[in-house]
Write a structure and sequence with these properties.
By secondary structure, the protein is α/β, with parallel strands linked by helices. The chain is built from ten helices and 16 strands. Bound molecules: nicotinamide-adenine-dinucleotide (NAD).
Length: 374
């Protein structure tokens, strides 16, 4: 989880030396990480805004193959250089890190080129289109001592972090099950199903909270609007700890729901991300099972205690995410949402996609070394 996943990278001394020169540079009395941001469609401008605001970062390039997108960038941030040519970004020795906000199908190739050029890399969710691609990127980053971070944005949001802390402290107890709904009207994607687009968020949250990868998934779905691109899916997952989870996702719903219920052995939680305040509620509710002392019937006792809404900090998740990427480059810490977390999510997505398209219970193929976070 949050704290334990922040262990320093195991770097060799040569890696550490390279990191000193490649990952940071002293400027005035602070450290500045020079970044290039690639992709300025729907999501990229949000990343750009946050990196521009970050005191420890300097945006040297914005790249997009679409000239119109670059014209918009130039209007808002006239001092940032723009290019349609990714090679220009990679060829600039000042650029230490690349932030990718391009379509999923491009993530692997663009990230691979950046790592091979010696750049730290941030990849928007999901990390890549297959476990094999994730493994290759992780191996490249580890061998070069470079930071590789995945944009599992919700892991940097105050409610998700707060729940992570509550789980870590033991207050909620062992997680028995989680059920989540993430539905709204649109945006229909043209290249990926709703599973890859929306379930990705729930899977990354679960991977962070539980500290383990799912081991199986089954589900159903339907392509209601675009042929062959499911826009509704109902997924059921199992985890090695015994926890079970259900995730509903859809781009076809009259209302926007972002509701997660988590039931622990001590307390229960409701996380509603559409609420403006009180996004998290902790219920001191439960059921105790008493074995009969003599031959007779067992007894259940229901407990309905206090309901508490913890105070949450108000940091914008994307700012926290961008700060964490820069901090990991500066310090050599491993990102909370590193390539292992990215791989766990992609493995679950691959299995969920198969379950929706082919039916049956599908095994989540996570390599042994990536099953549980350190
Ligand atoms: N974290 C979140 O909550 C969140 C939300 C939305 C999207 N995303 C992710 O962000 C990424 C981008 O999604 P989007 O909705 O912005 O897509 P989009 O299609 O709107 O934008 C992608 C942009 O990348 C550009 N592009 C494509 N190939 C390129 C290349 N080789 N070099 C340079 N530019 C290139 C396109 O011209 C386009 O402007 C996806 O991975 C998506 O899953 C994350």
């Amino acid at each position: 989880m949050w704290a334990s996943a922040c262990a320093p990278y195991p770097r060799s001394s040569s890696d550490a030396a390279r990191h000193e020169s490649n990952g940071r540079e002293r400027r005035g009395d602070g450290l500045t990480v020079h970044v290039g941001i690639v992709g300025q469609g729907y999501w990229g401008p949000n990343l750009l805004r946050n990196y521009v605001d970050l005191p420890d970062a300097s945006v040297e390039w914005v790249c997009d193959t679409n000239q119109v997108a670059l014209e918009k960038v130039h209007k808002r941030h006239s001092s940032v250089a723009v290019t349609t040519d990714y090679e220009v970004v990679l060829g600039d020795d000042r650029v230490q890190a690349v932030v990718l906000a391009t379509p999923i199908s491009t993530h692997f190739e663009l990230a691979k080129q950046a790592l091979e050029a010696g750049k730290h890399v941030f990849i928007e969710k999901p990390m890549a289109t297959s476990v094999a691609e994730c493994e290759e990127l992780n191996a490249l980053a580890d061998a070069a001592g470079l930071t590789l971070m995945i944009g599992h944005t919700f892991v940097y949001s105050p409610p998700v972090r707060k729940i992570g802390e509550l789980l870590e402290s033991g207050e909620i107890g062992e997680v028995r099950f989680v059920t989540s709904s993430r539905v709204n009207l649109g945006l229909h994607q043209k290249d990926v199903s709703v599973v890859w687009d929306l379930a990705c968020h729930d899977l990354s949250i679960l991977s962070y909270w539980l500290g383990e990868a799912a081991d199986s998934v089954n589900g159903v779905g339907r392509a209601c609007i675009q042929p062959d691109i499911p826009d509704v899916a109902f997924l059921n997952l199992t985890f090695p700890s015994g926890c079970v989870a259900s995730i509903d996702v859809s781009w076809l719903s009259p209302v926007k729901l972002r509701r997660t219920v988590l039931v622990g052995s001590r307390k229960m939680l409701l996380y509603d991300d559409t609420e403006s305040v009180e996004k998290v509620k902790i219920y001191d509710h439960g059921v105790d099972f008493r074995d009969p002392e003599t031959f007779g019937e067992f007894q259940l006792s229901y407990r309905t205690g206090d309901i508490l809404a913890p105070k949450l900090d108000s940091t914008e998740p994307l700012f926290a995410e961008a700060s964490h990427f820069v901090e990991c480059i500066e310090t050599g810490r491993r990102p909370i949402t590193d390539g292992v977390a990215g791989l766990q999510v992609v493995a679950a997505l691959e299995a969920a996609d198969r379950a929706v398209r082919e039916g049956g219970c599908q095994t989540v193929a996570v390599p042994e070394a990536c099953k549980r976070r350190a």
